[in-house]
Amino acid sequence: MATTTPRNKTFKSPTKTPTANNIYRKSYQSPSLTPQTPQTITPLRRSARHVSRRIDLGNDPIDVLEIESKEEMNLIRKRERAPPRKQSVDDVSEKSKKPQSLKTPTKKTKLDSEVSFSPVSPNRTEKRKNKSEEVKKTKTKTKTKKRVYYNRVEFDETEFEIGDDVYVKRREDANSDEEDPEIEDCKICFKSGGSDVMLECDDCLGGFHLKCLKPPLKDVPEGDWICQFCEVNKSGGGQSQTLVVPKPPEGKKLARTMREKLLSSDLWAARIEKLWKEVGDGVYWIRVRWYMIPEETVSGRQPHNLKRELYLTNDFADIEMDCVLRHCFVKCPKEFSKASNDGDDVFLCEYEYDVHWHSFKRLAELVDGDSDSDQEWNGRKEEEEIDDSDEEVEVEEDEESVVRGDSKGKRGLTSVKGGANSRKGRFFGLEKVGAKQIPEHVRCHKQTELEKAKATLLLATRPKSLPCRNREMEEITAFIKGSISDDQCLGRCMYIHGVPGTGKTISVLSVMKNLKAEVEAGNVNPYCFVEINGLKLASPENIYSVIYEALSGHRVGWKKALHSLNERFAEGKKIGKEDDKPCILLIDELDLLVTRNQSVLYNILDWPTKPNSKLIVLGIANTMDLPEKLLPRISSRMGIQRLCFGPYNHTQLQEIISTRLNGIDAFEKTAIEFASRKVAAISGDARRALEICRRAAEVADHRLKTNKTAKSQLVIMGDVEAAIQEMFQAPHIQVMKSVSKLSKIFLTAMVHELYKTGMAETTFDRVATTVSSICLTNGEAFPGWDILLKIGCDLGECRIILCEPGEKHRLQKLQLNFPSDDVAFALKENKDLPWLANYL
Amino acid sequence: MGKEIIPAAEKSLNLIRGRLCDPSYVFRPLSASSDSNYSKLKFIVSTSITEGCNNSILLLGPRGSGKAAVLDLVAGDLLEEFPDSVSLIRLNGLLHSDDNCAFKEIARQLCMEHHLLFSKMASLDENSQFIVAMLRECGLAHKTIIFVLDEFDMFAQGKQRLLYSLLDAMQSVTSQAVVIGISSRLDADQLLEKRVRSRFSHRKILFLPPSREEFDGLLEHLLSLPADSSFPNGYVSRFNEKIKNITSDTRFKDILRTLFNANSTVNSLLKFIFRAVSLMNLESGLLSLENFKAALSSMQRQPKLEAVRDCSILELYLLVCMRRLEVKEQSAYNIISVMKEYKTIHDSFQTSDYYAQNVCLRAFEHLRERQVICYTENRGQSQTGEYRPMKLLISASELHQGMRSHACCPAILLKLLDH
């Protein structure tokens, strides 16, 4: 900090603001839009954990002095008097804690003096522009030593890997408990383990020997078990005094396990994100992401929180390897329920906690099961990480983004970033979206069979297996493997067609997933995979920029992208750092790319025919004859590789539904069969079949909730019937039955006219004459032409009839939109107007 | 000037008008039963909130049957029940049928809802990616986004990119979203492209006009004054007594029947009552049967008939001439041929009403402006003025009826019309 003079600290007005943003900011500075600043008046408890942050911080000489002079102060007190979160002060104070919390104070302070500080906020835009330059500068100044990154490190005879969860020492009470027992003591006999099985109380998490219990248990009981002490406490009241919790024998110090310490916040848990060694001094460092116990969150422990629950935070810190105690195991709910006897260090984590916004979010991987949609989201980033040999740059970027997140709260509206919806800001501010509290109904609720069935029938839930599409998947796999495993990969095309809901896209995606696993196993050459949906492109030409972005990571206009892609595929020039991997291009809804001169399709299908392209195109569309509709030069390039996904038949649909419902007892077998037969007869669309079953489950749920006395809790035929009715039957018959009297007469007159003339189309003039004569003979009052016209137009708006606009009056052309038999069926048995039947 | 206005009358007038214009007041009693559309819709939406699943629903029914009103009721209740986890995005097909504009509007409303900065400059691509990202984030935070697409049929035109993106995002990302389409077209779901239709969950709720009993209950609910209010005591009981008298009157029932014969939706009833209440005599402060009668006649006007009734003699002549030409099966005629017919009538009957050509042209123009006659469409537009073919827009019987009720229609015209 001695090297650079502190720059002027204008926190309010960024010096460099693009004019476009400026205009935009002015026009949108309405009070309702003001983003809430996170409440960080009370200093974050965890802020003490930011042990070192070698990032460019805004510095204030006075602050640093002040803090350095009080370096020996109690940590906790310091936290209490930390000023309302101001980035520079806060981080500097954190930095000053580092000598305390780590064992190498001298070196660190020296390092401190070397760090070049630059204020965060004022010149952030500038920094963004020449980031690489900046990074280099900081590198040379701050880290004269190089870092070596590892994926796995052996330390103190334990192996640590990226992604592992560990206990981390908390400095203040490092000497409170010297010994850290691996196995906890029994709560009754106060002897640890031995060969006896210990049982854990689900409430107080205390361990008990099976034989120490009263009465002693032989086996571990199924389901939840609560110890006698907790049971008494729960039932409360009178008998609470009868059971005395046994006191430990005199002299024996009650040893606490790490789990207890963690849950009483004397220890920390964290996930390792990065491992590295400083080359100079050989000290191992890790970058960790903290876990938090529910008590530490703003909302505190909620009734639905489990005892062993932790939250993953978005709070990072670099710590020395020395602070790591040992492994613990933080699992998602699914694994957690399986890991019931994996020891004491197992924890559950389902939610992520944002320390700045104090909001909760589910962890994405958990929801997706095996994170296959994650790939779609992080795919690009992963690739970057793999490609990037210079990891250092990554670190800086990360840290910068952290800072950005921090400072954004303060800066609020004056942020120079674009809006949240523009990509420049990388959907900036999405971290704000989060539940302030986890809604209780999500956690406490025990799902009934019907609800489980509904959840598993959702279109969004990815099935574990894809039945009935083995042949097609094999064919796709063979095609892709055949294309990429050749030594010199030739470009090829495949056209996949089939009606909607026959599993085209999901089959291809699952093939790609399997292939990815094989790539990781080393059986298949690496490739890059680009997925594009034709209907999600703003215009067909945009596909070039999307492909280019996927390949190179840069966004350019489509013309430039086309140029570069042409070079890449036709001439074999490389784009950027990308190596010579084959490229698989999946284009969903291919028919949307057909332009007037079909140049987009031509280009895309022309590339694979070039010798050096290494491009494989998989096109998916609904129509079978798309190639035939195209120009001959395109259909010839599309080749003859076609794959048809036929509509499912009823046994296949039945299998699909029953594999999804496997293990859930909610449907009658006949009900499933009925639904699948019905769908197979109409469309063979699996989505439709699933939706019908889900709707049937909803109907059943509604029926059972309103009528408590129902015996069967299953979905019966009647429910499926109702769902099918709702889905397939057009509602016009019901509407026709309930329309006003004159509308009915009007419709009858139209049918009558149709029978009389045999012409589908008629004019209002004729219909009105018929209506008046019908009314006359049956003693109804004729309302007048203008009212009749209005009635006709109303019917036209419901599309029961088709009609021209009403201004044409007498000349208005009318036509029934439904078969006349439907009208006759709807109106024949009418109580008010029995005579209508005479005309139908 | 004689009697003075009762202050309570004005207050009651305002109260009832306020009720009529508040859809939630009107539809609350209709939604009480467990079989009503309200409870069906609420069940679907609230289960998708609590169970975290996606749904798409269509609300169908004729105009004025209370689709949007019931949806508003449900949305209001759900926002109260789950204040943190529901956000409502509203689009209207008439305003946002353009993809670009619809995406922008969704992004804007999402930004507003979550206090994010919104950029007007963002492209369609960016906006759609933003929406997908938001859907995912909200899904992870247990927040449900409800998309209300009013005039759903307008979205179901063209490439249907909006619907496809929404529905596709709902089936592939861990999102919690409900798409509710409102349409008066019964075949709205048939308009969807097949790949969109396949992704649509096809929940349909049909809105039908209420039964007669429900209407009676609704009438009382709307018209009777509350007993425990600031109105003078006697006034309330007098007012309610009068309402009861009127509604039990058979003449009133006839009026209602005529009204419902033409249009039996809730909306038409509301309009009818609004008119009747607005005609209330403020001096007595009570409604009367005459108010309802006047309201009915003001609802069922016959503009064409009135137009004929207000025609001048010359205009009637011209109309009759055109009619005669039609009877002679001369399907196409223009001003020249009508003038010729007019001249023959004049020549054979020696009427006193013979006007010069330019006067007649003015009369033609007048008739055309009132849409009693019109030019038939001719593509070429080559012919101008008097050579363009014309058409009569009113039927013979209307013309007949109108001339009969005309104040000074010459007798000879009626005769000419018949032969």
pLDDT < 50 stretches of chain B: none
Shape of chain A: extended
What is the helical fraction of chain B, as a range of percent?
55-70%
Tell me, what's the shape of chain B? flat
Give the spatial strand order of the biggest sheet of chain B. 2-3-4-1-5
Average pLDDT reading of chain B: 87
Organism (chain B): Camelina sativa
Domain ATPase AAA-type core (chain B): 57-203
Domain Origin recognition complex subunit 4 C-terminal (chain B): 219-402
Protein name (chain B): Origin of replication complex subunit 4
Task: Looking at this protein, list some descriptive labels.
heterodimer, A: 840 residues, alpha/beta, five-stranded parallel beta sheet, 40% helix, extended, B: 419 residues, two-stranded antiparallel ribbon
Describe the structure.
The complex is a heterodimer of chains A (840) and B (419). With 840 residues, chain A is of the alpha/beta class. Chain A is 40% helix and 14% strand. In chain A, β11 (346-354) and β12 (359-362) form a beta hairpin. The longest helix of chain A is centred in the middle third of the chain and has 21 residues, at 391-411. The radius of gyration of chain A is 35 Å and the shape is extended. Chain B is an alpha/beta fold and 419 residues long. Chain B has 21 helices and 7 strands. Chain B starts with 6 loop residues before the first helix and ends with a helix. In chain B, 44% of the residues are buried. The model of chain B has no long low-confidence stretch (mean pLDDT 87). The interface between A and B is large, with 109 and 96 residues. Chain B: Component of the origin recognition complex (ORC) that binds origins of replication. Chain B: It comes from Camelina sativa (False flax).
